[in-house]
Target: Probable beta-glucosidase E
Amino acid sequence: MKSRRSSVERAERQATSEKSTARASIDSTDLSRLSRGKQPKWYRASATNTPGPWAHKNGSITVKRICLGAVAGVVALIALLAASGVVYTKYFGPARWDSEGWYPSPKGGTVKNWEESYKKAAKLVGEMSLVEKVNITTGIGWAQGFCVGNTGSVPGKFPSLCLQDGPLGLRFADHATAWPAGLTAGATWNKELMEKRGELHGLEARLKGIHVILGPAMGPLGRMPAGGRNWEGFGSDPYLQGAAAAATIKGIQGQGVIATAKHYIANEQEHFRQAREWGLNHAISSNIDDRTMHEMYLWPFADSVRAGVGSIMCSYQMTNNTYSCGNSKVLNSLLKDELGFQGFVQSDWLAQRSGVDSILAGLDMTMPGDGMVWADGDSLMGPILTRAVLNSSIPIERLNDMATRIVATWYQMGQDDETKFSSDGPNFSSWTNDKEGLIYFGAGEGETGIVNKFIDVSGDHFKIARKIAAEATVLVKNDDGVLPFKRGAWGGKKIGVYGEDAGPGRGANYCKDRGCNQGTLASGWGSGAVEFTYLIDPLGALLTAFNTSKHDVPDITSILDNYSLKKIRKSAIDQDLCLVFANADAGEGYISHDGVSGDRNDLYAQKGGDALIKAVAESCSGPVVVVIHSVGPVLVENWVDAPAVKAVIMAQLPGQESGNALVDVLFGDENPSGKLPYTIGKRMHDYGPTAGVQYIPNGVRPQQNFSEGLLIDYRYFDKKNITPRYEFGFGLSYTSFEFSDIKLTGKAPKTALPAPRTDGVAPPRYDTTLPSISEALWPKDLKRIKKHIYPYLESADDVRHDNDYPYPSDYHTRREPSQAGGGEGGNPSLWDVIVEVEFTLKNTGKVAGKEVTQLYVSLPKSVEGAPVKVLRGFEKVALEAGESKKVTFRVTRKELSWWDTERQNWVLPIEGKIGIAVGRSSRDLPLEAKF
Model:
């Protein structure tokens, strides 16, 4: 086999061709390190940022490939863009940030909850050969198995693991539920429903033979309201994201399926997220200071680890100028040491950008196995990992830990139970809808057989899907009590339904990976989307709901076209009631539609939505009800104050039961109880100067400083005293609620620091003697499959003992364990209850309903840089008309603390008073107290 040394060496140099780019490691951990002085921060900003020429592209056309006969105007335009990029970088570009190294990678098996699983794993891994260990850490290649990701197996000992998208359902699978999106689940603010959604999602996965679900997503956090994949997460607050993620993980893993917390970490926009995806050889660098990392972006991952998540997926982009899947600080230090993560770290698909360096940095599994080019069969693990262990570039202890983490997670979920996980593997194919087909689809040849068994795993899960979508529906305006509608009261009336979003369009699955905005919007696009078995559109559900009586049938007119405004105006004049639908779509960056390349271009309704709503509002003879389906906040200033617009509903991305769930709310079968999981401002500028997507690269290595720190979404609005249109946590009901009688009870002393870190369980130990090279050579009788990735070496000559391997400059600097660690999610004492908050909630209206009670904490002014308030608790409470209940929040040490970069620990303020506020939204908090 041809030597791949270049793929495992550190390479800060830029590749000069596609081939060298694919083979060169572009991990940049060996950039200038932070010298450790009085303040042991792991970030710094230097004074310079080297500019360089760049070529912006869509697809694979770069400046170098433009032929000499290209149109002069195109050449001039590209030259202008390139020049402007250089100028921007030189004079306005952000400073450069570097990430220090942290070695060695901590071993798994150090917490009591995983002890038995690690004992079993140690026994099994101890029986494996070197190539068998390598095989279970390496994907077998794109489309080489039935799932989007498939590991190698150890016949008779350990199966090929099936990894499948995604957070919204089972991508590429048949007869499964298309769930409401993560953002929709977040809008319910209902932890029971979040866990139930995860439970049924996990059940469907298990019944399909899936071992690992690639979700939930809690990154992006929502720093940018126009971010393309915000809808896969749960909302623009770390506490909300963490609580929702933890509940989802408990549900999924309660079914024995491994959940994956993703995308780790700070993958906040789609533009430039991946090397070469946007015409640049480098991905964007998310530059984050230590405190912001801990209090914002790491927070939901800490909650996920505390919930016992089995897998973490590292993201495409760089974090402080080191690729996230090769960043030893974020993988080894923050995740495996400080958070005590016991599962395995897998790469996003082709997110591994180096060989040895990524493995030393803490990467445990590469997906889908191919190196830096799709389906090339040329892995950065596989035989590279085998050789690196044999030549001692990678310590065998690191490989043992990689394999043990994977096997221990398999045991931890009970996947060795063949009554739940059949040894036959997945019963569906991601690559064809035919019953029979190629077993190794990616090879394009070879063995065939039954690849789809068409097993229906959806059961009656539509009931919960409908319930989630209904509870996530946020009523933000309801003037004159126009809602709810009364059944049977519309006989002889005229009702107009307008907008493409109300109808079925060309079908829910018209575009691959839902990569277009047509018909009603029930999902964003990309790998987080799923195939719809069916989709109930709003118009169909409305026709059924209004036609409940043979004698009281209204006359319903529909125009499912956003642009026939003259026709719509003429129609609306005659209507007693108008319902108008608009939407805003986005998704993963490999898809572009209607000028939207992953991230949204702005925060307005798309496809002429504002003009459509205004046309109806200016013409309708009766009240107008506006329904918005969206991937995030949508600005409503162009029409929300129109006198005819009486009601506005934010319906998020409701999944397959879209129309039914909406009707449940419109007709009062479900009293609206959804709350906004984000802020709706009055203009984009309201979100702050750094909240906009970076659409134009500011260098050959785009830089993005998270200089706003802790101030995103409602935190920024609060700090700058900006009045939003609808605040974070806001949502109306058909009834009313009263908060009263707040009472605080101290449960533990206010000490500044958590308890000292204690030693956990000892991790497994193995014989570290290297095996004979002959054990790693190709078996003579093995029939090779085209593009399939194997762990074997062609020749003993491939193993060269190089004593000058260019390890990271601080590789031999051993780090002290973090005092913030010591357990899953962090130091166990961080979850000690410090104060108990009790209050009374009463339903003062005439109908039953649910209220989301929200608790916010304000740290003393002595804590420099603290937001005005931060969400630190929520509970959804159901009450009958006139009923009262006592509600209790148990607030923990971590929820009252801030991250001190000098002490490198969570610090609870002991001087000054901590404020506690309780209410119905971030701007409506009637109860306040201090302690």
Remarks:
- The chain has a mean pLDDT of 90.
- The chain has 19 helices and 27 strands.
- The radius of gyration is 28 Å.
